[in-house]
Design a protein that fits this description.
Blueprint (H helix, E strand, L loop, with lengths): L3 E4 L11 E4 L3 E5 L5 E8 L25 H12 L4 H8 L13 E7 L8 E8 L4 E8 L2 E10 L4 E8 L5 E9 L5 E5 L2 E7 L6 E11 L2 E4 L3 E7 L1 E10 L14 H12 L3 H16 L17 H7 L5 H10 L1
Antiparallel strand pairs: 1-6, 2-3, 3-4, 4-5, 5-10, 6-7, 7-8, 8-9, 9-16, 10-15, 11-12, 12-13, 13-16, 14-15
């Protein structure tokens, strides 16, 4: 099947293995672990730098003009083929403040009560790019477990559904590993809240995670939520910062109100409706273009990493299917 990336084992690294979902503002990297699932969560405006980064300097306080410096830098490059970074800084100068970097928000972790050893069979981790849905399925202890993830643009939420093919077999503990120092985490009524401010520029951030379960029990810990013996569970995530594209301070309202509203609305909406809203929104864009490279794709394709390893070795239909997916 084209338009699907799939793998026969969990991810072990963020950049080369984990599968991404995102809606333009919120994103998550899905690792697909069996005993412990990891979702690395991002929010697009969580950056260091900018106003407030260094209170003793004005944002964008550049060094005094250096007439001829750019011409001299170009001359050096033409002459030597390169310009050492330290020499470029000496010639051109650099701003004394305001440069920053993108920041991770947190890792959402799910600890399951089933093992991840030799009894796990039929493991599959996939990203259906035509529908922008990530899935993890496997069988252990005689039960098939499935997880689905998407980052919906309508509503600005990340949604996960956990279920099994036997009743009362969904048991896990949800916890959050904050990426930023000084973050505060609390739990109330099956909702985990994360908030804080970046040390670098005091940018405020806020995230909320709601857990809904069908059947079983939910227990709030101080920083965790535990679901026991449920038939299924839905997890809803939203986050934001007080960044605003308004000169000169680039700050707006506290993000907690709009984040809480987003989670409230999604939590009151059936999962299937959230999924349909997301799928319709995504496919309205994705389906604008199709690509036919000729030839019928094989009915069954090996894991994507195996397809990549075998690419160019003579199986042209499989190669074309991989190219079309790319």
């Amino acid at each position: 099947m084209t338009n699907v990336l799939w793998y026969s084992k969990p991810a072990t690294s963020w950049d080369s293995h984990a599968l991404p979902i995102g809606n333009g503002a919120l994103g998550a990297m899905i690792f697909g672990g069996v005993p412990v699932e990891r979702l690395q969560i991002n929010e697009k405006s969580l950056w260091t730098g900018g106003p407030g980064s260094h209170p003793d300097h004005t944002f964008g306080n550049w060094p005094s003009p250096r007439p001829g410096a750019l011409d001299e830098a170009r001359r050096r490059i033409d002459l030597d083929g390169r310009l050492d970074n330290d020499e470029a800084v000496r010639l051109l100068g650099q701003p004394r403040a305001g440069y920053g970097a993108y920041q991770s928000l947190a890792d959402l972790l799910l600890d399951f009560d089933h093992g991840g050893g030799d009894d796990v069979t039929g493991y599959r981790r996939e990203l259906d790019i035509a529908n922008a849905i990530a899935r993890v399925t496997y069988r252990t202890g005689g039960v098939t477990h499935e997880r689905e993830y998407f980052a919906g643009h309508p509503g600005n939420v990340i949604v996960a559904r956990l279920r099994a093919n036997a009743s009362g077999r969904v048991t896990f503990t949800l916890r959050l590993d904050a990426a930023q120092p000084g973050a505060a985490i609390s739990v109330s009524e099956s909702r985990l809240t994360l908030h804080g401010a970046l040390h670098d520029n005091a940018l405020r951030y806020h995230a909320e995670i709601q857990v809904r379960a069908e059947g079983g029990q939910r227990v709030d810990g101080r920083r965790t939520i535990t679901v026991t013996a449920a038939d299924s569970a839905v997890i809803i995530v939203s986050a934001g910062t007080d960044y605003a594209a308004v000169y000169p301070h680039y700050r707006g309202e506290d993000p907690s109100g709009r984040v809480r509203h987003a989670v409230d609305v999604a939590a009151a909406t059936p999962f299937e409706q959230l999924l349909e809203n997301h799928r319709s929104d995504h496919r309205a864009l994705f389906d604008r273009v199709t690509l036919d490279l000729g030839g019928a794709a094989p009915s069954a394709l090996p894991p994507t990493d195996e397809q990549l390893a075998a690419y160019g070795t003579g199986d042209e239909p499989a190669d074309r299917a991989l190219e079309a997916t790319y």
